């Protein structure tokens, strides 16, 4: 088959399989050098050469070098036919791979041969520059060298290049860049600058800063010429670089900064290098930046690229100057230190002014280039300011005399320049679309990230000079309000505002951010006392700014939602400014009413923009909560304002998104919860403003008016019939109504007797809803939350029967999830914990009714949970621990209830399932052995201690009767606890607590006290034998020999008979036994 028709990959692969590398490289080289061969075959041939290159003999590699050089020389021009760029690139890679293996020992002229190619005209220069770029990629970079041997080889080649050839490479680049820029040379100059940017970070600094070859001065001169020669429309004039090439030159100059840092030069030497008069670094940057700034309105892309490169250069030099200043502050040489620090500070001021100038550019790409330096400067200048304050307070020390301290007044001009730039950069660009999620668009995401960084810079300045920031914002607000008021007075309210919305939003945003984490805000917003002795203090700038904003109707009615957002959010951020009116201080309350009206009218919850009402509802809740003492006086006004939103509309489940929005109106039901919570706060706080005789009637009236519309659907007799057609829609409607009633209840913290009937009516409605829609998770979730609130707000006697019915409805559901099961356990425990300490509540009957159902559901779920992995076992253990905690709370309130259930005759139970006692004991034994999550074991032991101690307080006859029934069950429990005893970790605090409870339980069982002392000798003997048998059974298999188990069991049981005051000694005995058992077991 002819060579051209064969598959390239099969051809090369066949050659490798049939022949060793020594006989393979020649045909592969011939295929690659064949000018008429298929491109694909030539490509795979050169790839094959690269693959076998390390395995070839030295002579074979030396046979490749002249052939490769001859090929590259033909590509430099002359009579040879120009090959495809892909093949030339692959040849360059092959050349560098050969160089990596042979240089410098066996191919010392590799770099010289490369530079000779560069002397062969324009095409040769391009190939030489390309080879230099590939050297950085294949040799210098560590990314392609995963092994230690490869990294050592690369380091060796780099060291040889530094010693022998770097000066030649830099000289070649210098001579090339000295040639006047022209269109044919532009690509070569650009590649050459990229080479310098790649090489500067790792070559010797002497090769860069060379008086006989002023490379940096040449680059700066080219950059200056580029800025001065830029055309009006962005095109480059003859003899100068275009914007992209000049920006690449700036990157190369910036790379020198990294080399200076790695060089670890003294600070004075670094400063001397940066201020070298022959380089003219700072004047060149400043001149080029100001020249390009004058043309920023034309928006040429090349201008922006060059300005961005100059900004990055300014950023690099500025950070280096800042590091020099920090290093010089550690110098205690009085004779030389102060002059150097002063010179460094002056240069730093120039760099900050230049960076601030760049920062204010309209292009975010340009502004981002200097943001890092400005943030670093503001962060580090704090130390200089602290030094100035120390010198003002006392005599300066030796180091303070040497260092240059900076006062706040010196920084004012720098900070003001930054603040002006910040106010410009935080404003949203005209193209920003709030309807697009930032995560879905890189352009929006990048702007938000930059805005966040600029905000941090602003907050740092506010930390250093707070009053300057407040005065700057006051002046900006004054200008803003004056412009809006003047325009409204001249053109009327119907005309569009004279200022763009993003400028207004930026000022309000900075005012909002300035108050974040500022503890001095309440003091700053206080009204100056009228009777204060002269001189009368002037109002704080923040108070002046807020007064102007909330006294400017055009600003409060600004049409853009971003502006309204900050106007509303500042009602909460600066709540101390909006204090309700007090007697004799009416000036404090004037703006409270302004804020309240702002939230309730068309500028707040009634605004047509769908983004404003949800925010207004949330702010209204926080606003009322912050001023609750004064806000209750306006309960009727607030109630009338939010009344249209207190009725929840029914929305069919099949309704479209448009139909749902039309039914909901301005506020989604999730957002209306804020209004219900606000109403609850006002009703609950009425006692603060009304007399005792009017409180009950007012609370009852408002609460009934709020809850009656919500209860209507639940008590409608036609609901069950109507819901058959749309059960999902009606269930969602009911769930929202129950959620709303729960939100209203948040405003109350204790029972109010006059409201018991209202709450009872609401609870009955929820019970009806659970009967009809208990199969829906959202109905169950909000019903459970409402029941929990009722435990706090209703008297216990009125609550017990309703809660018992409600819990029965919960337990009747068969689709309860694990999260709901845990929530129910927490709720039952909450009931038991709330009932503790309330002797008026008949809890025993309630708990006796609720506990079996609670246990049945949780026990069934616990049994069904799989335990095939560690994660599953942990989840099952957590469910078990939650049950033990709930039963502990029940035993704490009414241990008689659990004892009665445990002693109940098994004949009374359902024949289809195990008795309660058997399942409860099984759960306890499993928990003693398997529960190792949190406090589960501790709760289990505490529960059994409470049960056993309850027996001690009963009559001997009752104790005898209960023990006769629970004898076998108690024996199983003791055996289980003894088994878990030797699994405890004596170093774990939780396990030590479990050990204390276990010792407490065991001592109670074996030491005759209370009713146990009246037991018969046979029963007391049975308890002791049960304890001994349990411990010995747990030790079996853990110690060698039956006698060892017997001896340890006797010792532990004997320790349990110690007097009551020796609890610590008993615990230590058991701890020693546990350690001995653990040490005897194999690891």
From TrEMBL:
Residues 85-220 form the Exportin-1/Importin-beta-like domain. Belongs to the exportin family. GO terms for cellular component: cytoplasm; nuclear matrix; nuclear pore. Pfam families: Exportin-T, Xpo1. The keyword Cytoplasm applies. Keywords: Cytoplasm, Nucleus, RNA-binding, Transport, tRNA-binding. GO terms for biological process: tRNA re-export from nucleus. It comes from Vitrella brassicaformis (strain CCMP3155). Its main location: cytoplasm. GO terms for molecular function: small GTPase binding; tRNA binding. The keyword Disulfide bond does not apply. Residues 383-755 form the Exportin-T C-terminal domain. This is Exportin-T. tRNA nucleus export receptor which facilitates tRNA translocation across the nuclear pore complex. It is found in: Cytoplasm; Nucleus.
